[in-house]
Amino acid sequence: MCSKCKCHQPWWRRLLCRRRLLIITSTILIVVLTTATATVTAWAVLRPRKPSITLQDITISAFNVSIASDNQTYLLSSTFQVTVSSRNPFGNRHSILYDGLRIHMSYHDQQITPATRLPPTYEGRGGVDVWSPFVCGVSVPIAPYNALALKQDQSDGFVIMKVKLQGHVRWRPGFFTFGGFISVDCPAYIPTGSENRGVPLGFNAVKYRLMQSCSVSL
């Protein structure tokens, strides 16, 4: 069965049919390419740059492991004051609003404190904000292997923890507002042995100045 362009038609009709097919195909390709280009351009313009977040210091008032009455459950009690700064890059076209951001401590990928909620914070282009919340946990159950590892780290004089921030963030390019989820990991290297570089602040409280850059995921 022959197509409309080949079925016993005069040469000028066959040429016209082929041109019509070419125009339709070209139009479809132009629409697809235009849509793809507009999508990529909008994504590049509206997508925000990651803020620069730094773990400035940690003050430790308590960090003790105990065993429950059943002699099987390990409990960790800890009190930290964490200072974290956030800077919205000058090159960012967007203002940032942190909304519902929470902070907690983790050790060997296990959360060792309840999450502390940070207040909503607005950050304009080039703006800097500093949070200094208390992050505490009382008799928090931890895995036995983590309890043993923590005791060993304290004995060795060096403990590695993480300060984690997670929550919602909104950014505003002009009159529009978009939202997303932000996750921040800040490694905290705490020297607790003979080379302890902490600053005593009172009874059992030691401040460690870290200035550690954090990884940010949007």
UniProtKB/TrEMBL annotation:
Chief place where the protein resides: membrane
Gene Ontology biological process: defense response to other organism
Nucleotide-binding found in the keyword field: no
Record-annotated membrane-spanning stretches: 21-46
Keyword flag Cytoplasm: no
Cell compartments where the protein resides: Membrane
UniProt entry keywords in alphabetical sequence: Membrane, Transmembrane, Transmembrane helix
Xref: InterPro entries: NDR1-like
GO CC annotation terms, alphabetical: plasma membrane; plasmodesma
Name of the protein in question: NDR1/HIN1-like protein 1
Organism, scientific name: Rhodamnia argentea
